[in-house]
Amino acid sequence: MRAPVAALLCLGLAFPAFATDPNEPGDADEPGAAGAAIELEAQREANNLELKTVEEQAEEASRALAALEHDMEALRNDQRDLNGRIDAAAARRAELDQRIVEGEAAMANLSERQDAVRLSLVSRRAVLGEVLAALQRIGRDPPPALLVSPEDALSSVRSAILLGAVVPEIRAETEALAADLKELAALRQAIALERTALAAALEENAKEERRLAELAIEKAALQAESQRRLERERDRAEALTNRSAELESVIASLAGEIEELRQAAEAARLAEAERQRRIAEQLERARAFAATAVPDKNRIASAYAFSGLTGTLSRPVSGEPVRFFGADDGTGHTLTGEVVETSMGDIVRAPVDAWVSYAGPFRSYGQVVILDAGERHHVVLAGMERIQVEAGQFVLSGEPLATMGETRFAGSAALTLASERPTLYIEFRKDGQPVDPRAWWKDPMSSGKASNDT
């Protein structure tokens, strides 16, 4: 019986507030709402701190994005500069190639002129040979000036005529040949120098092209890495922005919930104040009624504190107690109340002035009545057949509550009693915990009406 009765007590405590003692604590909604508001406020503060952190991270990400954009722009500028320098190097190489082609063409022309001069000399080799031979003879054996034979004179004349005709032409050709040879030598030297310079320029240009190509590859790699970093920072900035928006939405929602809880707490506080005011008015009216000798039945509050009624109460029904508090209930558990054996039709009366917190059937225990006796004390009565009171009603000590039935109910049948007569289960509770009711009875074997005004 212990667990069902505890459940009944919890059910009884959930009834309207006007059935409680005015000295008990008020409605718990107000502190509960205030506690929830405090928790939500703490959560909002935590979210505000997280939002501040996220905003700082977002600002840092924005600065990082700006720095990366600046670096990317610098890399693009460097890449454009490198491309321009590569194009300039390619243009210089094309110019050098053109100069090489022109030098080769000049060399070919000079070679042709050299061949032409050589052929001219070869074609006039016989005439030149004769002239040279004549010049040698004249130089070796000059003819006499006065005494000459007619044949010698004729030969001299012929030689003079031949020399006079050939020598000027030979001199002119020789001078032209010498000039051509000198020019050819100069051109060859200039071409050789030009080739050397072009070769050096080509090698330097090739080195510059290789260096520029390596720089371009390096810049491209840096640009690709910077682009990847830029994408990561953009994704991070976007995630931070989304998180910031989520936190702002959560904070706004929490603010609304906090405001609702504050309003609910204020409403609960006002309701509790109104309840306390009504109870105070009721108590004041009760005191006024008592002062003007109003009949006892009109009271709406206990005349005495329940804790001060020990040894003064009568059991709610006539009968013999068959089980007491702390005894074995027959199921292996300790009894948390006491069991009184009664007769069919016995009247169950209120043992004390109290509010009816609950009145009605409960499982197999028959009709159950829970009385709120004040000072956080409750009296549980179970096993009755018909109830004459309602929840929220104030009853006086000795006032009829219910009538016993013909037999015991199934809930009480768990107690191994030899008798099959009806039994009433009585349980006293303080702060939700069962206490021994024997301290309140004035006579364990008494029966009938008892009054708190004794």
Notable features of this structure?
single chain, 454 residues, alpha+beta, 8-stranded antiparallel sheet, 3-stranded antiparallel sheet, 11 strands, rod-shaped, disordered N terminus
Care to describe what's here?
This protein has 454 residues and is an alpha+beta fold. It has five helices and eleven strands, in the order H-H-H-H-E-E-E-E-E-E-E-E-E-H-E-E. The chain has helices at residues 2-13, 29-123, 125-140, 150-291, 410-413; strands at 320-323, 338-341, 347-349, 354-361, 367-374, 377-384, 386-387, 394-395, 400-403, 423-430, 433-435. The strands form two sheets. Strands 1, 2, 4, 5, 6, 8, 10 and 11 form an eight-stranded antiparallel sheet that branches. Helix 2 runs antiparallel to helix 4 (150-291) and helix 3 packs across helix 4 (150-291).
What's a concise summary of this model?
The chain is 59% helix and 12% strand. The chain is α+β, with helices and mostly antiparallel strands and 454 residues long. Helix 2 runs antiparallel to helix 4 (150-291) and helix 3 (125-140) packs across helix 4.
